[in-house]
Amino acid sequence: MIRKLALGTAAGTGVAGALYYTQTQRQPPPPITEPKKRLPKYELPTKVKYLLIGGGASSFGACRGIRAVDPKAQVLIVGREDYLPYMKAPLSKEMWKSGADKDRLLFKQWNGDYRSILFEKPDYFANLDSLKQPDERRVAFVGGLSAVKVDPVEQKVFFDDGSSISYEQCLITSGTEARMHPKLANLPGIEKHLLTVTSVEDFKKLQQSACEDESIAVLGSGTVASELAYSMSDFAKRSNAKLKVTQIFPEAGNLSSMVPEYLAKWLTKQLISEGINVIAKADIASAEIVAKKLHLHLTSGQRIVVDKVVLADDLRPDVKLAKASGLEIDPQNGGIVVNSELAARSNLYVAGDASSFFDPRLGRRRFEGHEHAVSTGTLAGRNMAGARKPFSKQTLMWSDIGEIVNLEGIGLLDPSLKTVSAFFPDSPEENTDFEGKITKGVVFYKNDADVVVGILLCNVFGKASTARRIISEQKPSLDLKEVAKLFYEKYSPEEEPEEATIPNPVTES
Ligand SMILES: Cc1cc2nc3c(=O)[nH]c(=O)nc-3n(C[C@H](O)[C@H](O)[C@H](O)COP(=O)(O)OP(=O)(O)OC[C@H]3O[C@@H](n4cnc5c(N)ncnc54)[C@H](O)[C@@H]3O)c2cc1C
């Protein structure tokens, strides 16, 4: 639990949920001021030493990494969104729970404390002008500004308002973007029926829709889609809203692109039993708008009438800026190609969801997850400041599918690999009709050489470093039922170093 707290989330609600909900007597802290902070009349300096593009988790990590090596660094963060740098993970879960304060972007942690989704308090950020004072050790942020092109030779970035800035070191953290469904793309008037789930503004629209609409379809089987389907449905139940949530995807079950089939089907059954209309093995065949409602004709023959559709299927790396800048895009995983030091070109780095990095153990890959973004951002920042270190950490992603299960995944989570499951106390033995309740479990993913390359932990807390170690050691032919016992041992805080600690701007000064 300690690491989860350190990461600033209320992950682990499956176990800690009871505690979370019983501490409702606590009052929210006083306002931390309006999170939006656009600088209305900004004038960019002509040059900055460190320029970070994007205001998400990797940028936050990079800021820390730079300042760990170069404590007097002057850093400028430029983000497309009108919000100070913030974390996205709570937008599909914690921000939907009782006690969350959506206006001030505060959510309740498992221990009952409030925290903001913002990484830093507004007063952490300096006035842009202070970057023009060479002796000032400052971080400034400009929101509502999009980088449209980087010239890696001239070391210059161009923005959508016509301005530009030269840099000594630059980091791109463009994250992911929603994918338009091909059958909806050309439907006249469809815009009014579409929602996405990648930003605070998206979250606010989703909340409004959950309060007002009768029917919403979430497209996609992945973690964000599944978390959101649960959260919206649960929110509607608690607030007596009339909303009915449908989740539609072509795969066999929820999280099919990550977990073995029996687990995916099990998850689907659990979500259905929570009142969500999950339609697996179906896609939109055609759509029409009739009397302000969207009629979805599915490949399964079903017809669903909804007010809105959430495009939560297959969030893809946002590579618009990279393409416009002539950077290499990985044809396999769609990310921006970087080397082991996370550099795409000289003095130009990429971190987080958008990067396709080289992992010396597991090969070239892309990984989406908050901790990965903070860790790659931190390393990129350190390297920008001269550290020249390769990225070698096995980072993790986590997901809370409501109260159903908490998942933590490390390494290659590819269900097309051979998997071995070990659940406590009873193992489902890859049974495709698994009906039981998951207490704790581990799924190992093995490559052709019988080496563990990925580990998924189900309701197992504080054991990520054990999983990292097993993947890093690359020992073949392990007795995995024995190895699994390491994950059932009692959690010891000493075992899990606090990594990627994020201060809580609400409770810490
Ligand atoms: C709803 C949701 C829930 C999630 N839940 C979890 C979870 O429970 N656990 C987990 O491990 N991970 C979770 N994730 C994934 C995690 O949030 C991401 O892995 C992480 O945010 C990636 O960080 P990043 O810095 O690469 O990109 P982001 O955090 O996406 O930040 C990128 C930012 O860059 C901006 N940007 C893009 N292009 C430009 C440009 N050209 N100019 C200026 N700005 C630009 C974008 O607007 C965006 O704000 C979730 C993601 C979402 C969307």
TrEMBL record:
Transmembrane feature ranges: none
A GO-annotated cellular component: mitochondrion
Protein name: Apoptosis-inducing factor 1, mitochondrial
Intracellular or extracellular location(s): Mitochondrion
Predominant cellular place of this UniProt entry's protein: mitochondrion
Organism lineage: Eukaryota, Metazoa, Ecdysozoa, Arthropoda, Chelicerata
Alphabetical list of SMART domains matching this protein: AIF_C
Protein family: Belongs to the FAD-dependent oxidoreductase family.
Domain of life: Eukaryota
Keyword presence, Oxidoreductase: yes
FAD/NAD(P)-binding domain span: 49-377
Gene that encodes the chain: LOC100909315
